[in-house]
Amino acid sequence: MNSRDFIDREAEMDSEEEEEELAEEEFDEDAGRVKKSKPKQKKRPEYNNDSSEEEEEDDEEEMAKLKEGFIVDDEDEEEEEDVELADGSVFREKKKATRRKRRDEDEDNLDDDDLDLVMENTGIDRPKQHNFKRLKRGGEEGKARQASRDLNQIFDDEDEDLDQPNERDDYDQRDDRRRPRQDFEDMDDFIEEDELSDDGQQLGSEDEMAITGRRRDTEHRRRHHEQVGGASQIDMDKLQDMEDIFGIGDYEHLLVTELDEVEINDTAVELKDVFEESHLEERMLTDADNEIRLKDIPERFQLARKPYEHLVEYQEDYDDPDKIDRLLVEEADWISKIMLSQKIGFPSDLRRHFQNAVFKCLQFFIKDNVEVPFVFQHRKDYLIHAFRPENDSEIVAEKLLNQDELWDILEFDLKWRSFLEKRKALERTYEALQIMGVTDYVYESLIKEAATSEDLQDLQDYLHFQHTSLLKDAQIASNGQQGGNLKRRPGGAKTVFERIRQNRVYDFVKAFGITAEQFATNVEIEQKREFSDDPEISPHELSEQFVDDKEFMNGEAVIIAAKKMLAEEIYMSPRFRKALRPRYFARGLVHVHVTEMGIKKIDDQHQYYEFKYLQNQQIRNLIQSPGLFLRMLKAEEEGLVEVKLEILESSLPQLRELIYSENMSDVANAWNAARRDVVKQAMEKITRLMQKIVKENIRNVCEEQIATKCRQAFNSKLDQAPFKPKGLDLGQVPTVMTLSCGQGEHGRDAIVGIFMDEFGRQYEPMKYTDLRDETAKAEFVEILKRRKPDVIGIAGFSVATHRLMDDVRKLIDEENITVLGESDDERFPLDVIYVNDEVARLYQNSTRASLEFPETAPLIKYCIALARYLQSPLLEYASLGKDIVSINFDADQQLIPQDKLMKKLESALVDMVNMVGVNINDALKKQSYIGNLLPYISGLGPRKATSILKSITANGGRLGTRSELVGDPDKNLLPVVGGNIFVNCSSFIWIEYDSAEPGADYLDNTRVHPEDYDLGRKMAADALELDEEDIQAMVNTHGPGAVVSELINSQQENKVNDLILEEYAEELEKTFNQKKRATLETIRAELQHPYEELRNSFKLLSAERVFTMLTGETHDTLFEGMVVPVNIRRVSDRYIAVRLDCGIDGNVTSDMVDNNGLSVHAVYAVGQTVQGKILNLNRKSFFAEVSLRESDVRTSARRFDRLDRDPEEWDEVREEKDRAKLAVTNQEQQRTVRVIKHPLFRPFNSRQAEEYLSKLFRGDAVIRPSSMGMDHIAITWKVADGIYQHVDVLELDKENEFTVGKLLRVMGKYTYTDLDELMHLHIKAMARKVDEMTSHDKFKTGSIEDCEKWLTSYAQANPKRSSYRFCYSPKRAGYFDLVFKAGLNAKILCWQVKVIPNAFQLRDNDYPDMTALCNGFKMLYQSSLQQADHGHGGGGGGGHRGPPPPMSNHHRDYNNNHHHSLPYAHRR
Hints:
By secondary structure, the chain is an alpha+beta fold. It contains 55 helices and 33 strands. The protein has a 5-stranded mixed β-sheet with strand order 12-11-10-13-16, sandwiched between helices. A 5-stranded mixed barrel has the order 19-20-21-23-22. A hairpin with a 4-residue loop joins strand 20 and strand 21. The two termini are 48 Å apart.
């Protein structure tokens, strides 16, 4: 037997080796602590006379024999160890070191039957096993029981899965008793077998003895007998006999009852001691999450304000109660100026009222801690300006703020806090300078005017530039006060500007005759207030007076340093920056400069072509096209373009004139020339700074605009009531039937559907092959007539759904299936509509769907989600949680950060959920569905919502009144929420009114807030015209809600319309200073229609939206004039039937074909894919007219036409130069278009092939023309996502240049007779090997860096073990990286594995499967180590050696070989 066979046998054993499980930790929810479950093990001693057990033992002996020669067993050894027991006695324990001795010991023990026999003979009743159990583990883990293990046992396939990185393992803690090292022991690292006891651990260890809490010392034997015998009711003499037979150490642990259990460590175990922090964060179970739950502040407020919670300005001061209001006045002024600048045409006479409204909102948000829905619903009077014009009895109300602007105020509040934090830090910096005696008038004059973060940053830069040394000294002093180092860092050298300022050269700077602050003042007012003075001599003459021997050794150096210093002072001037910044925003021009890579990659059809040569773009125009600018920045990040900002000199003040002196002389001219150079240097730096600032500001504005557009689109989706069929009121839930044929072809793949009643219960799962079949049709009609759905909803993933819709509508008409109208005499045809399926697509394969319907097919789940959407779109969107960002609201939403988008979408959900309200008792019944609305209720969030549900459940599982939310001692109900959260959420949580239930309050079923219940009761009493005695009698008899109940039960609620609310509102404002007019109107409406449906009607899908849903195409991706691949479905003399990739059918008339006089059948064949131009596209009928004429195909319509641009905005000269340059270098554009009659042929280049395959599956391929000539074909196939291999095929024996060769050769050694044979035996064969590799347990997804991290973590967790993994090699398609690490201190090495048809190739050796590859790798590694050892003079000692020179020492080394000529892997 050779070594290769030997290793194969070893590899086969790997899959059926011993099974061991590590101890697991479980959280005991009842006990509130962690319990540790023991490893699954055989009871020790375990006796079993089953013959199968003997066969297994024989198998183990056979396997052990096979391993001889690879595994050197440790010598049998044993040691004695003192184990201290709980009572202080010591037990002398023998520890067996090897499996062989333990097996021998087990053979001498008795099995369970023998034990029963001995018990019976001695007269002892053997206790039942379940009456005894091991004592629970407590405290820290005991010392590990570790069998001996060789360092050289690495890369073993058998137990590698037991020890993943970051997992604790018994192997790591065992005593390390090594045998002497042997030659080439690194090879043995690959083949190993870890040996443990049969039960997975060594019994009788110190850890086991410690947790039993029993002492077994001979000195205390009598007491021990009393304890054990008493617990187990065993006679003492008989217990002595048992000990003589079995030995005390072998069975005593079985006789410890549950009453004897003890915990060594009484410390309560918390969740953070058991679970990873990331898991707790994901489930919101950290200490911070619990703090949020308990704190009586809205959850969203806590999360948003967390970064600024240290600001003392917002903390109440009982000695200064007006402190917060003073700050809010300043904040309201700051926010109002920003918001008013964005409100075009806002009346000037309302600006003061607007600022007051902003101030009141800030008081509500910050002092009262109430959220936007509460303010909008219950403080609406403060959002309007109501007044009575002179000589007019009618009150006029002007709206100041809408609900969206309330969210804006909240966002501006956070920005203000950030601004305030920066300003405080800046003030502390200046205070440190003042302590050192510095007074800076520039800072003091500008700090009060600072209104933006840029202003503060300018001042910060200025202080650190102007007082660098002093600030360093202040920092050192601060460190000293905090116990830090009082010395400067050795590397803290002075800057060049510090050296100039402290040198005589600074006097030359002053000789320029004007300071940076004086020049900035001139620029600020755009006129010359400060004048420059000229010295008597020229700059060159004067500079000679400041020469020194160290740094400035000549006059030129002095001049250069002085110019640089003055330019830096101007650049650092906060006044100068502030004066220029608005000009860059207002008059700056943006240009796009395409890079060399962009020239090649961005063609006419590329999404970035619309700005490839864009120039002279004004900033205000870019802000109006936010998606365009964000795409420009994305292209810049990808290295395709550079976005430049420029401002024309004509747009700036005459800077030179503002710094020049007015003298007329040669000396003055020389100094003015020097001043001109200074301004030029300063402006170069200012332009770079402004470019960064302007781009970042435009980015923020554009992102905000797109996020707002997404919010508006989402709000439109949410603002729709359940579908309203004929005969139902708006808001009523219909019964629904939904159908879908999924991706399938109608008539071939199954049509499935369900029926859902108004309570959300599913019935009648349906499945039909074809609704045109008479049997299926009859069955379907029977269900329709029996269930009587109010509407049928249809959706799917392909154009086949359109044909299903036509069949169902036709069937409804034929069978005359109708629904009842608003009267019994009215009948209407049953509605059959398309349903928006964006939620259903996410739901069908989600975890939530699997939990709700574990046995249901995905397409049935899809239909369930469709039905739910028809019954409540709001519930379906709310159930998505964070997955809501997966829905497409805007074409550019992927360009903005996901957290910003999520925040906007969440605010839309909060608005809509609070407008609709939540029936809290329904939410308790259906927590996994209706309960999803609770986190969006005002004041709540996911943490508080969960807490509320649990608290109400603990109080009995039902909420009787809103007041029970704050507890009811009389009913023994604990508080569910705090007072502030109750104020926020109570009016949006409603309880269905039941007049028969005692204590029920009708107002709990309305939008009326509990704080306004008295107003509602007063209005009800006035409507009923009750006097005080009648009211008091009713309240005493039926409770405080009696008057309102009387109004409702007597059906006299319309009487509230007779009340004059204006006078009542004026009286409330005059007497109590409360604005309640809007609130009174709300109460009147709610008394008549509680929680009336305020949403719009259900929105039916437009034809354009249906087209996008079924095809995935939009106006931007598919349009008339576009050239697309079409697949020929039928060929006739009059026409050709084709189908587009999106599923749309098309027709090509005979005059739209170039056949050059030949028969159409000779040119085109069924299954062939050709390029066609869309002449006409009917999106409603899903049909297109197509042309195959070459003249049409060559003139494709562009997604963007540069002719639409103003000539001044498009750099045509640069474009023509780039086109000419590209035409010379890119022969692919000029070659003859070649067409091959094969279903997989596409007229693509390499990039187009990759884009096409990106949507397909691994192993899919396209055949395409090759750039290497007419005797070559290229095949591109998808290895993995983002990895594509381009295979060059040489054609031999060709009849002419347009036909396919009779012999096709790949890589010079694989020859095939036709394309089908090549695809099957070469491409598909390699794809199967890739599948085999990726499904192997040694393959790891991710990059090679991920593999390295895994191996490093694994080695740290298992320092005595080694491992290897395979991963994709993205830079070499068709290759895999074999990455391995032979120990903790070894380097990570990498070899390349090449995929070839039906084999893997490693170092020029072919291996037919993964088992052979793994074993071959080990043999090659052994051979390389032997060569390395011989090369270094042999020797078996020393540490791990790296492989010999032919092997790379790091995975990146192989990149040096990437540029070899490889016809099999290079791109064309």
